[in-house]
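EI: anyone free to look at a 279-residue chain?
SC: sure, send it
EI:
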Amino acid sequence: MLIPKPARFRFLCFNGADFHFASIVLISALFLLMKTDLSGQIVQTFNASGTFTVPPNVTQLTVQAWGGGGGASSTTLASRPGAGGGAYASSVLSVVSGQTYTVTVGNGGTPASPVGNAGGNSVFSMGATNYVLAAGGSGGGDVTPGAGGTIAASIGTIRHAGGTGGLRFFPAGAAANNGGGGGGGSAFTGADGNNGGNGTVTTGGAGGTGTGTGGAGGGTSPVNGQAGVAPGGGGGGRSFNVGALSGAGAAGRVVISYCPDFDAEINGLTDIFLDALLP
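SC: here you go
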Protein backbone atom coordinates (compact mmCIF):
# COMPACT_ATOMS: atom_id res chain seq x y z
CA MET A 1 0.00 0.00 0.00
CA LEU A 2 1.25 3.50 -0.82
CA ILE A 3 1.25 6.00 2.06
CA PRO A 4 1.71 9.73 1.31
CA LYS A 5 4.23 11.70 3.35
CA PRO A 6 2.26 12.38 6.58
CA ALA A 7 4.26 15.47 7.59
CA ARG A 8 3.54 17.21 4.31
CA PHE A 9 0.01 16.11 3.46
CA ARG A 10 -2.50 18.96 3.68
CA PHE A 11 -5.49 20.43 1.82
CA LEU A 12 -4.62 23.01 -0.79
CA CYS A 13 -6.58 25.86 -2.35
CA PHE A 14 -5.99 26.64 -6.01
CA ASN A 15 -7.25 29.42 -8.24
CA GLY A 16 -8.52 28.29 -11.64
CA ALA A 17 -5.18 28.39 -13.45
CA ASP A 18 -3.29 26.73 -10.59
CA PHE A 19 -5.95 24.03 -10.27
CA HIS A 20 -5.74 23.31 -13.99
CA PHE A 21 -1.95 22.99 -13.76
CA ALA A 22 -2.14 20.82 -10.65
CA SER A 23 -4.70 18.56 -12.33
CA ILE A 24 -2.36 18.05 -15.26
CA VAL A 25 0.50 17.19 -12.91
CA LEU A 26 -1.63 14.73 -10.93
CA ILE A 27 -3.00 13.06 -14.06
CA SER A 28 0.54 12.78 -15.44
CA ALA A 29 1.67 11.24 -12.17
CA LEU A 30 -1.10 8.66 -12.26
CA PHE A 31 -0.25 7.84 -15.88
CA LEU A 32 3.40 7.31 -15.03
CA LEU A 33 2.51 5.16 -12.03
CA MET A 34 0.25 3.00 -14.16
CA LYS A 35 2.92 2.80 -16.86
CA THR A 36 5.43 1.65 -14.26
CA ASP A 37 2.99 -0.98 -13.07
CA LEU A 38 2.35 -2.28 -16.59
CA SER A 39 5.90 -2.09 -17.94
CA GLY A 40 6.71 -5.53 -16.51
CA GLN A 41 9.86 -7.48 -17.18
CA ILE A 42 12.85 -5.88 -18.89
CA VAL A 43 14.88 -8.14 -21.19
CA GLN A 44 18.40 -7.51 -22.47
CA THR A 45 19.81 -9.85 -25.13
CA PHE A 46 23.52 -10.28 -25.79
CA ASN A 47 24.49 -11.70 -29.18
CA ALA A 48 28.07 -10.55 -28.64
CA SER A 49 30.23 -10.32 -25.53
CA GLY A 50 30.01 -7.28 -23.27
CA THR A 51 29.28 -6.20 -19.69
CA PHE A 52 26.11 -5.81 -17.67
CA THR A 53 25.69 -3.36 -14.78
CA VAL A 54 22.79 -4.04 -12.43
CA PRO A 55 20.34 -1.10 -12.67
CA PRO A 56 18.95 0.78 -9.65
CA ASN A 57 16.20 -0.96 -7.66
CA VAL A 58 17.04 -4.38 -9.13
CA THR A 59 17.76 -7.21 -6.69
CA GLN A 60 17.24 -10.30 -8.85
CA LEU A 61 18.20 -11.39 -12.37
CA THR A 62 17.22 -14.32 -14.52
CA VAL A 63 20.15 -15.28 -16.73
CA GLN A 64 19.77 -17.64 -19.70
CA ALA A 65 22.68 -18.77 -21.87
CA TRP A 66 23.29 -20.91 -24.95
CA GLY A 67 26.75 -22.11 -25.96
CA GLY A 68 28.07 -21.73 -29.49
CA GLY A 69 27.62 -24.52 -32.05
CA GLY A 70 30.56 -26.54 -33.35
CA GLY A 71 31.90 -26.43 -36.89
CA ALA A 72 31.99 -29.48 -39.17
CA SER A 73 35.16 -31.08 -40.57
CA SER A 74 36.53 -29.41 -43.70
CA THR A 75 38.54 -32.43 -44.87
CA THR A 76 37.95 -32.96 -48.60
CA LEU A 77 37.39 -36.05 -50.80
CA ALA A 78 34.46 -37.41 -48.77
CA SER A 79 31.22 -36.43 -47.10
CA ARG A 80 31.48 -35.41 -43.43
CA PRO A 81 29.26 -35.68 -40.35
CA GLY A 82 27.60 -32.77 -38.59
CA ALA A 83 28.79 -30.83 -35.55
CA GLY A 84 27.17 -30.50 -32.12
CA GLY A 85 24.78 -27.80 -30.92
CA GLY A 86 25.32 -25.62 -27.85
CA ALA A 87 23.95 -26.41 -24.39
CA TYR A 88 21.50 -24.26 -22.41
CA ALA A 89 21.85 -23.10 -18.80
CA SER A 90 19.92 -20.67 -16.63
CA SER A 91 19.73 -19.45 -13.03
CA VAL A 92 17.93 -16.83 -10.95
CA LEU A 93 20.56 -14.73 -9.18
CA SER A 94 20.39 -12.31 -6.26
CA VAL A 95 22.30 -9.14 -7.13
CA VAL A 96 23.09 -5.65 -5.87
CA SER A 97 22.51 -2.48 -7.89
CA GLY A 98 25.72 -1.16 -9.38
CA GLN A 99 27.48 -4.52 -9.66
CA THR A 100 29.09 -5.14 -13.05
CA TYR A 101 29.21 -8.60 -14.60
CA THR A 102 31.09 -9.90 -17.62
CA VAL A 103 28.94 -11.41 -20.36
CA THR A 104 30.77 -13.80 -22.69
CA VAL A 105 28.91 -15.03 -25.76
CA GLY A 106 30.46 -18.21 -27.17
CA ASN A 107 31.67 -18.00 -30.76
CA GLY A 108 30.44 -20.46 -33.34
CA GLY A 109 33.07 -23.04 -34.29
CA THR A 110 34.60 -22.82 -37.75
CA PRO A 111 35.18 -25.76 -40.11
CA ALA A 112 38.67 -27.28 -39.82
CA SER A 113 40.54 -30.49 -40.69
CA PRO A 114 40.50 -33.18 -39.42
CA VAL A 115 38.06 -31.93 -36.75
CA GLY A 116 35.99 -28.76 -36.84
CA ASN A 117 36.49 -26.20 -34.09
CA ALA A 118 34.25 -26.42 -31.04
CA GLY A 119 31.76 -23.70 -30.19
CA GLY A 120 32.67 -21.39 -27.33
CA ASN A 121 31.10 -21.40 -23.89
CA SER A 122 28.64 -18.61 -23.05
CA VAL A 123 29.25 -17.32 -19.53
CA PHE A 124 27.81 -14.81 -17.03
CA SER A 125 30.57 -14.08 -14.56
CA MET A 126 32.22 -11.67 -12.14
CA GLY A 127 35.96 -11.99 -11.68
CA ALA A 128 36.89 -15.67 -11.44
CA THR A 129 33.36 -16.81 -10.55
CA ASN A 130 31.11 -18.21 -13.25
CA TYR A 131 27.47 -17.92 -12.19
CA VAL A 132 25.95 -19.31 -15.40
CA LEU A 133 27.80 -21.24 -18.11
CA ALA A 134 26.39 -22.96 -21.21
CA ALA A 135 28.87 -25.30 -22.89
CA GLY A 136 29.61 -25.05 -26.59
CA GLY A 137 29.08 -27.94 -29.02
CA SER A 138 31.97 -30.08 -30.25
CA GLY A 139 33.29 -29.91 -33.78
CA GLY A 140 32.50 -32.69 -36.23
CA GLY A 141 35.30 -35.11 -37.13
CA ASP A 142 36.08 -36.83 -40.41
CA VAL A 143 34.00 -39.84 -39.32
CA THR A 144 32.55 -39.10 -35.88
CA PRO A 145 29.84 -36.45 -35.43
CA GLY A 146 30.39 -33.64 -32.95
CA ALA A 147 28.69 -34.07 -29.58
CA GLY A 148 26.35 -31.40 -28.26
CA GLY A 149 27.37 -29.13 -25.39
CA THR A 150 26.94 -31.20 -22.23
CA ILE A 151 25.04 -30.75 -18.98
CA ALA A 152 28.13 -31.78 -17.02
CA ALA A 153 30.22 -28.97 -18.51
CA SER A 154 27.53 -26.34 -17.88
CA ILE A 155 26.65 -24.32 -14.76
CA GLY A 156 23.12 -23.35 -13.81
CA THR A 157 20.01 -24.36 -11.91
CA ILE A 158 18.49 -25.55 -15.20
CA ARG A 159 20.70 -27.23 -17.80
CA HIS A 160 20.01 -29.02 -21.08
CA ALA A 161 22.38 -30.56 -23.61
CA GLY A 162 22.78 -29.62 -27.24
CA GLY A 163 22.02 -32.12 -30.00
CA THR A 164 24.71 -34.32 -31.57
CA GLY A 165 25.54 -34.00 -35.28
CA GLY A 166 24.21 -36.52 -37.80
CA LEU A 167 26.22 -39.27 -39.49
CA ARG A 168 27.56 -38.90 -43.02
CA PHE A 169 26.63 -41.37 -45.77
CA PHE A 170 29.85 -42.97 -47.01
CA PRO A 171 29.61 -46.70 -47.65
CA ALA A 172 32.39 -48.77 -49.22
CA GLY A 173 32.93 -47.79 -52.85
CA ALA A 174 31.14 -44.48 -52.34
CA ALA A 175 30.74 -42.18 -55.31
CA ALA A 176 29.87 -38.51 -55.68
CA ASN A 177 26.75 -36.96 -54.10
CA ASN A 178 26.82 -38.89 -50.85
CA GLY A 179 25.31 -36.63 -48.19
CA GLY A 180 26.85 -35.08 -45.10
CA GLY A 181 25.31 -35.19 -41.65
CA GLY A 182 23.15 -32.39 -40.29
CA GLY A 183 24.32 -30.25 -37.39
CA GLY A 184 22.80 -30.73 -33.94
CA GLY A 185 20.29 -28.20 -32.63
CA SER A 186 21.08 -26.10 -29.57
CA ALA A 187 19.18 -26.98 -26.42
CA PHE A 188 15.63 -25.79 -25.85
CA THR A 189 14.91 -23.92 -22.61
CA GLY A 190 13.04 -26.97 -21.36
CA ALA A 191 14.65 -29.93 -23.15
CA ASP A 192 17.78 -31.16 -24.91
CA GLY A 193 18.36 -30.11 -28.50
CA ASN A 194 17.62 -32.68 -31.19
CA ASN A 195 20.30 -34.55 -33.09
CA GLY A 196 21.09 -33.78 -36.70
CA GLY A 197 19.76 -36.11 -39.40
CA ASN A 198 21.97 -38.66 -41.15
CA GLY A 199 23.05 -38.16 -44.75
CA THR A 200 21.75 -40.44 -47.53
CA VAL A 201 23.09 -41.47 -50.89
CA THR A 202 21.89 -38.22 -52.48
CA THR A 203 20.80 -35.85 -49.70
CA GLY A 204 22.31 -34.26 -46.66
CA GLY A 205 20.85 -34.85 -43.23
CA ALA A 206 18.43 -32.26 -41.83
CA GLY A 207 19.64 -29.95 -39.10
CA GLY A 208 18.47 -30.92 -35.63
CA THR A 209 15.82 -28.64 -34.14
CA GLY A 210 16.39 -26.60 -31.01
CA THR A 211 16.37 -22.97 -29.94
CA GLY A 212 18.88 -22.67 -32.77
CA THR A 213 18.51 -25.21 -35.60
CA GLY A 214 21.56 -27.08 -36.85
CA GLY A 215 22.74 -26.58 -40.41
CA ALA A 216 21.68 -29.15 -43.01
CA GLY A 217 24.30 -31.47 -44.46
CA GLY A 218 25.38 -31.09 -48.06
CA GLY A 219 23.96 -33.38 -50.78
CA THR A 220 23.36 -33.31 -54.51
CA SER A 221 22.11 -29.72 -54.18
CA PRO A 222 23.26 -27.76 -52.33
CA VAL A 223 26.57 -29.55 -52.07
CA ASN A 224 27.80 -27.46 -49.13
CA GLY A 225 27.00 -28.13 -45.52
CA GLN A 226 24.97 -25.24 -44.10
CA ALA A 227 25.83 -23.01 -41.15
CA GLY A 228 23.92 -23.47 -37.91
CA VAL A 229 21.27 -20.98 -36.82
CA ALA A 230 21.79 -18.78 -33.74
CA PRO A 231 21.82 -19.37 -30.92
CA GLY A 232 24.21 -22.30 -31.02
CA GLY A 233 23.16 -24.48 -33.95
CA GLY A 234 25.89 -26.88 -35.11
CA GLY A 235 27.30 -26.78 -38.63
CA GLY A 236 26.31 -29.32 -41.31
CA GLY A 237 28.85 -31.61 -42.95
CA ARG A 238 29.91 -31.29 -46.61
CA SER A 239 28.84 -33.70 -49.33
CA PHE A 240 31.22 -35.91 -51.31
CA ASN A 241 31.18 -33.48 -54.24
CA VAL A 242 34.48 -31.89 -55.28
CA GLY A 243 34.80 -28.39 -53.90
CA ALA A 244 32.01 -28.80 -51.32
CA LEU A 245 32.40 -26.94 -48.04
CA SER A 246 31.27 -27.73 -44.50
CA GLY A 247 29.16 -25.43 -42.34
CA ALA A 248 30.18 -23.32 -39.36
CA GLY A 249 28.45 -23.36 -36.00
CA ALA A 250 26.34 -20.40 -34.88
CA ALA A 251 27.31 -18.09 -32.03
CA GLY A 252 25.64 -18.55 -28.66
CA ARG A 253 23.52 -16.06 -26.77
CA VAL A 254 22.97 -14.65 -23.27
CA VAL A 255 19.61 -13.20 -22.19
CA ILE A 256 19.21 -11.22 -18.93
CA SER A 257 15.76 -10.37 -17.62
CA TYR A 258 14.68 -8.49 -14.50
CA CYS A 259 11.91 -6.43 -12.91
CA PRO A 260 12.82 -3.25 -10.99
CA ASP A 261 11.58 -3.29 -7.39
CA PHE A 262 8.04 -1.88 -7.72
CA ASP A 263 7.80 -0.37 -4.23
CA ALA A 264 11.06 1.50 -4.71
CA GLU A 265 9.96 2.85 -8.08
CA ILE A 266 6.57 3.99 -6.78
CA ASN A 267 8.01 5.55 -3.64
CA GLY A 268 10.51 7.46 -5.74
CA LEU A 269 7.81 8.79 -8.04
CA THR A 270 5.64 9.69 -5.04
CA ASP A 271 8.47 11.76 -3.59
CA ILE A 272 9.00 13.57 -6.87
CA PHE A 273 5.38 14.56 -7.32
CA LEU A 274 4.79 15.49 -3.67
CA ASP A 275 7.85 17.69 -3.81
CA ALA A 276 6.43 19.37 -6.91
CA LEU A 277 2.97 19.93 -5.43
CA LEU A 278 3.92 20.76 -1.82
CA PRO A 279 6.78 23.23 -1.84
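EI: The chain has two domains: 14-40+261-277, 43-258.
SC: 👍
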